[in-house]
Specification:
Elements lengths: L24 E5 L5 E4 L6 E3 L3 H17 L3 H9 L9 H12 L6 H13 L5 H22 L2 E3 L12 E3 L2 H15 L9 H4 L10 H17 L5 H13 L63
Antiparallel strand pairs: 1-2, 2-3, 4-5
Helix pairs in contact: 3-4, 3-6, 4-5, 8-9
Protein name: IS1249 family transposase
Length: 304
């Protein structure tokens, strides 16, 4: 009787055996959830390190350092050591919605999202104390739910080299963010009697900043789109300066500014008005598709 053995063709992307150099085949997972490989030639087995996951973690840490997510608070603390800091409660709610979504499936997630929505309606110290009591009661009801773990054997596809992980990671992140902000004293600083000292009320969100300062700067750049990068920076500085308590632009003008500059006047070498090319093109280095800086098209000014 003639017998023959057939093996599946190895993929060109298969891991190579470190001993004989032959293509290896997948052979299950380790207890930590890593992919195990086996060589049919020399019968050796090995595991592959996930260098891509390690590099991604390093890259995310680098981005956090570049964007200054952690250093902004430290810089503010060094500059204004005795000034209380209030975290925008609207942004806290947005961060909570990112973790829990607008429609959490579990009861714990729905209750925590409801707490986050009521957070933006807190206006007094008594309401803040009542809200913190609700948060503490929520933790008492769902503490066991937060402590649930998943081991790599239960879900090897999502192990990514881990032996275990928290089953409800997003729920834990949303809850402990609220706890961390409260312990740091930045959740209810706006209604803290020690901060108010008989005054107040103080805002609990950055709506005044977004609508009173940031919107003005964006509108100024939109009205003067086409500026160079340096001129955009100057335009932004002037817009912010004019929003100060007592702006005095004439105080910044020196006698040298009134002197006539000698030189040839700039010639008008642009296209004739009314031609197809008489369009305000963005300057070099400006993204024409960025909001507020591009060429506008549409039905503006027309009636249907």
């Amino acid at each position: 009787m003639l017998t023959c053995s057939m093996s599946k063709n190895k993929s060109s992307r298969a891991r190579r055996c470190p001993l004989c150099g032959r293509a290896m085949r997948r052979n299950g997972f380790t207890g930590a959830g890593s992919q195990r490989w086996r060589c049919d030639g020399c019968r050796s087995s090995s595991t592959a390190r996930r260098d891509d996951s390690r590099r991604m973690a390093e890259f995310r840490a680098f981005l956090a350092w570049v964007t200054g997510k952690e250093s902004m608070g430290e810089a503010a603390e060094r500059r204004w050591m005795d000034v209380p800091v209030q975290r925008c409660l609207v942004h806290v709610l947005r961060n909570t919605r990112v973790d829990l979504t607008n429609r959490p499936r579990g009861e714990a997630g729905r209750e925590l999202l409801g707490l986050a929505r009521r957070l933006v309606r807190v206006t007094t110290a008594d309401e803040a104390a009542a809200w913190l009591k609700e948060l503490n009661d929520w933790h008492g009801r769902h503490d066991d739910h937060l402590k649930e773990r998943t081991v790599a054997k239960q879900d090897p596809m999502h192990a990514r080299g881990r032996k275990w992980w928290w089953t409800h990671e997003r729920l834990r992140r949303a809850y402990f963010r609220l706890v961390r902000l409260n312990r740091a004293g930045v959740l209810f600083a706006f209604c803290d009697p020690a901060v108010l000292k008989g005054g107040g009320p103080l805002p609990s969100a950055t709506n005044q900043l977004e609508g009173g300062v940031n919107a003005v700067v964006k509108r100024a750049l939109d009205h003067h789109r086409g500026l160079s990068e340096e001129h955009m920076r100057r335009c932004r500085e002037w817009a912010i300066y004019m929003l100060t308590e007592q702006p005095d632009p004439m105080a910044l003008v020196t006698p040298e500014h009134w002197r006539m500059r000698k030189g040839k006047p700039a010639g008008n070498d642009g296209p004739m008005p009314g031609t197809m090319t008489a369009v305000q093109e963005p300057t070099d280095g400006v993204d024409a598709y960025e909001s507020g800086f591009g060429i506008r098209k549409g039905w503006a000014g027309r009636s249907t």
